[in-house]
Amino acid sequence: MLNLFNLRGLTWGSGNDDRETVALTAAEVASLRSGIADLEEREAHLKARLEHVDEMLRSARLSGYLYIRTRWAALPGEPPPIDDTEVDDWLPRFLVLHGSCIFIYLVSTDLSPQDSTLLSDVTEVGPLPPLTREDGETRYCFYIVTCHGLRYECSSASKVQVALWLTTLQGDCKSAPD
């Protein structure tokens, strides 16, 4: 059994009753205890993340990975935004519609969202034309505009997923474009 803990630098010896023993210095014991404490702390942190994700997904009305890019509306007196439709700056993000808020996480296991938007701040939600990427993949798209001038453009390879997000957000925000 002790051979499983093949630690370099430990002195091994045989006891009187044919059992192998190991002699550790106080520093080695302290180091092992510290390592165990670090692992227990990491385990507790990972369990907390898992419980958070579990609770978040159980109580969310909608959740899933979408590709997102953000744009800001031009302020009065500013030139119109540059046409950057050819720029591929879509980033995969995990979106959660929970209560009256849309939370945007980098990955589904994050404890804190990267960004969030209140549904009461959403002024418009609508479809965008599908995109065809260089690899031939088609992504279906929609947009969300906030009263602060922020525009989220969202896309997915799943037409059903985009339709579900679009229908739900338009119903919640009552802001379908004319």
UniProtKB/TrEMBL annotation:
Residues 60-176 form the PH domain. Coiled coil: none annotated. Transmembrane segments: none annotated. SUPFAM superfamilies: PH domain-like. Pfam families: PH (PF00169). InterPro entries: PH-like_dom_sf, PH_domain. This is Switch-associated protein like. It comes from Actinidia chinensis var. chinensis.
